[in-house]
Specification:
Keywords: Coiled coil, Hydrolase, Signal. The chain is of the alpha+beta class. It contains twelve helices and twelve strands.
Length: about 525
């Protein structure tokens, strides 16, 4: 019996290895994980069904319709494969459950056999007299005590065997229930798999019809694509011209700004810096000008305090606080006067002491003429400003620092949407001989949606295409964002816009597609917008 049981256990382990599973717990964990993946695929397919249902009355040559159809076919194929794997896991689960039932059944047979033997023995010795004689025939009191304990333990053993048989029976029933549940689960998976296979064939047929529709109208579609690309080239040329002109003007502005700043710094007065700020309130050096004004005001106040006290200590205190101050040289001159007077006083005293010593008479107090208090005069011309290493702010990186730090975190230019056309050269999803060159990304969204500014900036241009739609250009320092395919705009050139502000309505074409072409440029250099948008 034991050899048979060992063989059964080894067979179960080897069978588990052969199926890639070792324990029932591991099998269940992998099955649960697969069921979660299949559940996610079902949700994705449900969402795609809604999108396709929404467009069922629209042209089947809609780019968004084709892409959603492709996504659904891929998701359905993955789900069919997932259900196949799930069925295999359930079959393995049923197999392992059956092995456990067989093992428990064999153990139950042995338990019942042992219990039967116990009952037979108990029946033969069931009388109280036999038990009493068994105890009374003991040779000593300790032996009698041990025999009493033996009778008690034997009774407990009988009851324990009965409980063990009952527990084993319940365990077998539980395993049988789990097996039946797995069988029902398998039937459910098989039914789902059958349905999914049928739906997959239907969707593949729908895609084939779309392909045939495209091929039938390939010439017309190619012409439309070529016309759109021609229009886009015109828009791109105009955007480049506008940006190049702005870069040129920005360079001229930066040079003039720098020139006025150099003049203010050379004069180094409050008035010169204030003149700079009046001309360039938002200039590249406006912060430095304000700091210098504050420093000069503190310098003037310190100098007036020193002049009011007119002591050597006061001038020394000024120099300590403003070693490069605009009145530093004057302060040193005043200190020199005090030091000269002190030296003259010292020399005069030494002379008087020598004369008194010679005349043998007491030294008379020498009256020293005090340093003349200077008359109030206008502040002298400041010393030349010390050389400073001012940062050159005329380069594009400094002007666009806030925008560039948001790479990968910018909000989308629509409230809801998905990318249906990627940056760069891309083959047409169906007409393989057509290559579409995209300067940005195409974002499909709901009909009636508005484009939104992705960052604070200024509206630089609104470009209209004859017979077409509008393109909006917004400047963010030396970076630009472009919003193409707007049916109308709600801002005008020169407007300051905030992040998230509505810019205008996105056009819905004859196919029912509402697609915004969104671009990002550093100067006139085209960037991949996907690397800028967050959560895409």
């Amino acid at each position: 019996m034991k050899q048979h049981l060992i063989f059964t256990i080894l067979f179960a382990i080897l069978s588990g290895w052969a199926n890639g599973q070792i324990t029932e717990a591991e099998l269940k964990a992998q099955k649960d994980k697969l069921q979660q993946q299949n559940s996610s695929l079902k949700k994705e397919i449900s969402g795609l069904n809604k999108d396709l249902q929404k467009n069922q009355t629209e042209s089947k040559t809609s780019l968004l319709y084709v892409q959603n159809l492709d996504k659904k076919i891929i998701a359905q194929s993955q789900l069919v494969n997932g259900l196949t794997k799930e069925k295999r896991f359930i079959e393995d689960e049923i197999y392992l459950t059956q092995l456990e039932i067989n093992k428990l059944s064999r153990e139950l047979v042995e338990l019942r056999k042992e219990y039967k033997e116990i009952l037979v023995k108990a029946y033969k010795n069931k009388s109280v007299e036999n038990k009493l004689l068994f105890v009374l025939s003991s040779e000593s009191l300790s032996q009698a005590f041990r025999r009493i304990k033996y009778i008690e333990k034997y009774s407990e053993y009988q009851l324990g065997k009965a409980d063990e048989i009952l527990a084993k029976t319940k365990q077998i029933e539980k395993e049988k229930s789990a097996r039946e549940k797995s069988k029902m689960e398998k039937e459910s998976v098989l039914a789902q798999q059958s349905i999914m296979k049928d739906e997959l064939e239907v969707e593949k047929g729908a895609k084939q019809k779309v392909i045939e529709e495209y091929k039938k109208n390939a010439g017309e579609i190619s012409q439309r694509i070529a016309e759109k690309q021609r229009q886009q080239k015109g828009v791109d040329s105009e955007i480049k011209r506008i940006i190049d002109e702005e870069i040129k003007l920005a360079k001229i502005r930066a040079e003039k700004d720098k020139k006025d700043w150099d003049a203010a710094a050379k004069t180094n007065t409050i008035a010169s810096y204030q003149t700079y700020l009046n001309t360039w309130p938002g200039g590249d050096y406006s912060n430095a000008a304000q700091r210098n004004i504050q420093q000069l005001e503190a310098d003037n106040k310190g100098w007036q305090t020193a002049r009011g006290s007119h002591t050597k200590a006061a001038y020394q205190s000024y120099l300590k606080n403003f070693p490069q101050g605009q009145f530093a040289s004057t302060a040193r001159v005043e200190i020199g006067k005090f030091e000269k007077a002190e030296e003259e006083q010292r020399l005069a005293k030494e002379k008087a002491e020598r004369e008194a010593e010679l005349a043998n008479k007491p030294v008379e107090n020498v009256v020293v003429k005090p340093v003349e208090t200077p008359k109030p005069v206008e502040n002298p011309k400041p010393d030349p400003a010390p050389k400073q290493d001012f940062a050159d702010r005329s380069n594009s990186a400094e002007l666009s620092s806030d925008f560039s730090n948001n790479r990968g975190r910018l909000p989308w230019p629509v409230a809801k949407g998905q990318i249906v056309g990627r940056f760069g050269e891309n083959p047409h999803p169906i007409l393989a001989n057509i290559v579409i060159n995209n300067d940005g990304v195409d974002i499909a969204t709901n009909k009636g949606s508005n484009a939104r500014a992705v960052f604070e900036g200024e509206v630089t241009a609104i470009i209209s295409i004859p017979g077409g739609n509008r393109t909006l250009l917004i400047r963010h320092g030396t970076y630009y964002t472009v919003y193409n395919n707007l049916s109308f705009v709600s801002v005008k050139k020169g407007d300051k816009v905030k992040r998230g502000q509505d810019l205008g309505r996105i056009y819905t074409d004859e196919n029912g597609d509402t697609i915004l072409k969104f671009e990002v440029r550093s100067g006139s250099t085209k960037q991949n917008p996907e690397s800028w948008l967050g959560g895409n």
